[in-house]
Amino acid sequence: MRLPENLLPKVKVALHGVQGLVIFLAWAVTIAIFTKPGSTDGRTKFFFALCWFCIPLLIYQTGIPQFNRTKRFSNAYAHAAIDVLLAIFWFAAFISVATWTNEGIKKGVGRPGKKGCDAFAWGTGSKCHLSQATIGMGVVL
User: Fold this and answer.
1) What is the pLDDT of residues 8-66, one digit of tens each?
2) Closest alpha carbon to 10 in 57, 55, 84, 62
3) What is the pLDDT of residues 62-74, one digit of tens each?
4) Long-range CB pairs of 62-71, under 8 A, 24+ apart, other chains included
5) Are 105 and 120 in contact (CB under 8 A)?
6) 141 and 94 in contact (C-beta within 8 Å)?
7) Among 36, 54, 33, residue whose Cα is nearest residue 134
8) Residue 58 phi, psi (nearest 5)
9) What is the C-alpha separation between 80 and 12, in angstroms, rounded?
């Protein structure tokens, strides 16, 4: 069974639209992490910067093939390369935030009567929970 050729670009645009929505949510949650008391390091900032870096790439992925005047700038190999590049970057971003979160939990385990996110060394427990939410969004992306 073969899919109609005119359906695939619409599916690709829809998937990139969902990706854009998840990136927006990840961006908003990362801002919430920055506003919580405590410290952050470059790993969380890399995740935040990647949210901004993806905007022009998603515009290219979704907008360029949709309009007749811009289709000449669209290249299947460029789209595939961007997809692979973003997959690598998002993998690195969610791994880096996961290592930052786990390191903060491990350093705070020595506190009496606290474990898990309650023992988060880099800030409050809510900062840890928000960081875990960004990890989940990074996995989806």
Assistant:
1) 778 888 898 999 999 999 999 999 999 999 888 899 999 999 999 999 999 998 888 77
2) 62
3) 888 777 888 888 8
4) 62/12, 62/13, 62/16, 62/17, 62/20, 65/9, 65/13, 66/9, 66/13
5) yes
6) yes
7) 33
8) -70, -35
9) 12
